[in-house]
Amino acid sequence: MVTHDTFPRPGSAPRERFDQALGRLKDEGWQIVDAGRFAADTGTSGLLSLPADLAEHFAPGGALVKDVAISWRGGLTSRIQSVFAREALVLSVPGQAEQDDDLDALLDLDADELGRKADEAMEELFAVVHGLNSPQEGFVTCLAGDEVSSDLCRIVRAFDRLAEHGYFAEPDLWPTVSGAWQHVHEAGALARAVFWTTQAHTSCFDPRGDLVDQLTLQWAGDRDLIAELLRSTGLAVQAPEDENTVFLLLPGPQDRAR
């Protein structure tokens, strides 16, 4: 298996980090295919197709000078976004967390109807993860620019620093909390772990990866260390009172935290 650095090496060029992100996705089972294969293979999930002129999106020194549109079919776009964030690259996912149009309708629903809506959303996530339905498709865009960043990139950097302390720290780990903890258990990391779920990701991050709602983080380990490293993001951090409650990351500056 190809090994990857936990976080981008200092001074590494965007082209190198872009290729590193693709390598991570390949390790997770995604296939990078050409446009012809992508157009023909409509029933296969986990496909990514890059523009034919990809090299022209990068300067000779590796700087990203033009946005890169990546076609995808099947799989979770939130996961693609998280992997690119691990390489300090901002990936825009159209439609993510855009719920304003439905908010009034949701407020009119009773508890049973809200429960059904939540169940339907979870079933849709599981269908995507397990390839139960015809794969959805679309595109995501890696944004160009020297100063481009996002809340997601900063949070993932804090997670990488937690990993340096021996933590299993993973964004967008699994659709459900119970399933995510099972992954933590299989990794032998129940004593030191921090993660959030796919459902939390798609609800809390806007298309470019900035927080628009409070993000729930499941955790185990040293509460003070986790809080310290999360505060390095510049976001408001609400630390749990005990091990049975969760961390919250809030949109906006740190002075919002209690």
Walk me through the structure.
This protein is of the alpha+beta class and 258 residues long. It has two domains: 14-96 and 134-142, no CATH class; 151-256, no CATH class. Helices cover 38% and strands 17% of the residues. It contains nine helices and ten strands. The protein has helices at residues 14-27, 35-40, 77-86, 100-107, 111-130, 151-164, 177-186, 198-204, 223-231, and strands spanning 31-33, 47-49, 68-73, 91-92, 137-142, 168-170, 193-195, 215-220, 235-238, 247-253. The strands form two sheets. The protein has a five-stranded mixed β-sheet with strand order 1-2-3-5-4. Helix 7 (177-186) links the parallel strand 6 and strand 7. Helix 1 crosses helix 3 and helix 3 (77-86) crosses helix 6 (151-164). The longest helix is centred in the middle third of the chain and has 20 residues, at 111-130. The model is unreliable at 1-6 (pLDDT under 50).
In short:
By secondary structure, this protein is an alpha+beta fold. It has helices at residues 14-27, 35-40, 77-86, 100-107, 111-130, 151-164, 177-186, 198-204, 223-231, and strands at residues 31-33, 47-49, 68-73, 91-92, 137-142, 168-170, 193-195, 215-220, 235-238, 247-253. It contains 9 helices and 10 strands.
